[in-house]
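Fill in residues.
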């Protein structure tokens, strides 16, 4: 009987150890998965993650039709920031920029960094009027703000391009992304520090962004 009790205890201890190891492995996998979807500099969703969010929202609207807006936000003349403050200063400004943009977002919206100084906004349940309000709020949040690097104040602006798909219009990710890119190119070409909103029903052909 004593041997049976000892064996039973050993089995219980081993089972507990295996359960703890499995839990730790699950937590590590979750951390790795989060790291794979997170921009390491800003902590925002990276390009892969924001694209997954966008496609998920587009899939949802096939079941529950609603307007949706995709936005691209690009820092104006960011090369000058990197040239003056080097990469470390540029990284500092990007972190500040991501925080400034995040403060202008609604809880239902998603913001991700898609590369360099460019960010993507996914705004479900948003029509053209709502996109105009959101785009301007993003622009003002940056233009009215300020950061400092090594004691030197830095101010900057962004250009914003939004593509809007009305509730009754079927739209794909690539289509919305292309129209948003064209809207951003127009904002850059017409003076920067401004917003351009395009509806898919009246979307013009894409334009090349100036260097």
């Amino acid at each position: 009987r004593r041997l049976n009790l000892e064996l039973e205890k050993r089995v219980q201890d081993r089972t507990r150890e295996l359960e703890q190891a499995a839990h730790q492995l699950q937590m590590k996998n979750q951390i790795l998965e989060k790291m794979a979807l997170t921009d390491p500099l800003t902590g925002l969703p990276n390009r892969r993650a924001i694209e997954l969010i966008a496609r998920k929202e587009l899939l949802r609207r096939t079941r529950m039709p609603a307007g949706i807006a995709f936005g691209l936000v690009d820092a104006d003349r960011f090369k000058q920031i990197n040239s003056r403050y080097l990469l470390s200063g540029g990284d500092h400004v990007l972190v500040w920029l991501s925080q400034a943009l995040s403060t202008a977002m609604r809880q239902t919206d998603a913001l991700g960094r898609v590369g360099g100084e460019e960010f993507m906004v996914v705004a479900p349940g948003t029509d053209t009027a709502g996109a105009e309000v959101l785009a301007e709020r993003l622009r003002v949040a940056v233009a009215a703000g300020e950061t400092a690097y090594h004691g030197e104040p830095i101010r900057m602006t962004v250009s914003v391009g939004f593509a809007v798909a009305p509730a009754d219009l079927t739209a794909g990710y690539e289509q919305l992304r292309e129209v948003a890119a064209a809207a951003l190119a127009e904002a850059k070409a017409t003076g920067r520090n401004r917003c351009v909103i395009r509806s898919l029903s009246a979307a013009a052909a894409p334009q090349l962004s100036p260097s």
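The chain has a mean pLDDT of 89.
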